[in-house]
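Help needed: design a sequence for this.
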């Protein structure tokens, strides 16, 4: 297919390299013209001109968070397939706009929640399919410095990033928690800035207590001394009534202290180690679904679930808050 990557920052370069390897990279677009020279593809600096004159069959939206919604909608209006990096958007109003545009379009909308394609997470999802979920916990403890936020002017601001550790660094883990355990109905959350008060407007630490078919707890910080492996634990019950503990880590799953390793099976990684190994299989599945006329499972509504959770957490301010539908 003729595919364009829009936004050639760190994550855009990952998408472009995977598409180049597939033979699908047709065009690249970035307002910074200096980033275009590295690519053997049609080059454009204006997104609307890309859609109307270059006419790609699909676009990958890899721009700063606040640009996602309008770019997704403009592509869908033209019946151009869209794969949008996380988050799908940063406010409730844009969720509504995007889902309306998706329903009105003949094109496919996909959201890049690539951790769902990591081998260990796929295994955990399949293992839990016939079990009753009793509870779930997740922990993200990473380190981000003032230098990280100084690297791009849109980072660390409510208007452009839409939040901090929740909507950026820990979004994928929060999505995995609800994907494995079920979408909560309400939550009580606390968000704060403990380490970067002078550098960012948004939170560096968040705690979520979620209520639904099973209780879920979530803690995330970028104030850790160093990056630690993400941990996700699910307590479940088999049809026979046996209680089990399933701990999901990036490259292995521990079930009642028995380790199932996936390090040897993980596909090649692109970009930062924390991105995981899911981008390549997710992108392949997205285009397989288009070719076969099948729905892509992480569509607009599915991609909006974790955004709804995060926005409810920001509204909560330590009070129980319903999660929008």
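Sure. Designed sequence:
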């Amino acid at each position: 297919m003729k595919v364009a990557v829009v936004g050639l920052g760190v994550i855009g370069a990952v998408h472009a390299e995977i598409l180049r390897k597939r033979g699908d990279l047709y065009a690249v677009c970035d307002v910074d013209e200096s980033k275009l020279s590295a690519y053997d593809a049609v080059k454009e600096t204006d997104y609307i001109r890309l859609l109307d004159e270059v006419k790609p069959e699909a676009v990958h939206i890899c721009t700063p968070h606040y640009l996602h919604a309008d770019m997704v909608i403009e592509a869908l209006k033209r019946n151009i397939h869209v794969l949008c990096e996380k988050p799908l958007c940063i406010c409730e109003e844009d969720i509504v706009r995007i889902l309306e545009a998706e329903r009105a379009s003949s094109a496919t909308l996909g959201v890049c929640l690539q951790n769902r394609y990591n081998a260990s997470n796929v295994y955990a999802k399949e293992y839990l399919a016939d079990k009753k979920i009793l509870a779930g916990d997740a922990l993200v403890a990473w380190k981000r410095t003032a230098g990280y936020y100084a690297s791009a002017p849109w980072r660390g601001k409510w208007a452009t990033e839409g939040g901090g550790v929740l909507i950026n660094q820990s979004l994928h883990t929060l999505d995995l928690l609800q994907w494995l355990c079920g979408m909560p109905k309400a939550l009580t959350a606390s968000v704060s800035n403990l380490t970067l008060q002078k550098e960012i407007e948004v939170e560096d630490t968040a705690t979520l207590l979620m209520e639904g078919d099973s209780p879920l707890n979530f803690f995330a910080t970028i104030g850790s001394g160093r990056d630690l492996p993400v941990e996700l634990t699910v307590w479940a019950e088999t049809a026979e009534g046996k209680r089990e503990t399933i701990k999901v880590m990036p490259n292995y799953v521990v079930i009642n202290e028995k380790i199932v390793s996936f390090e040897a099976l993980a596909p090649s990684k692109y970009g930062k180690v924390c991105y995981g190994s899911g981008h390549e299989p997710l992108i392949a599945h997205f285009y397989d679904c288009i070719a076969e006329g099948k729905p892509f499972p992480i569509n607009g509504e599915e991609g909006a679930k974790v955004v709804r959770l995060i926005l409810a957490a920001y509204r909560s301010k330590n009070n129980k808050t319903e999660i929008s539908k």
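The chain has nine helices and 15 strands.
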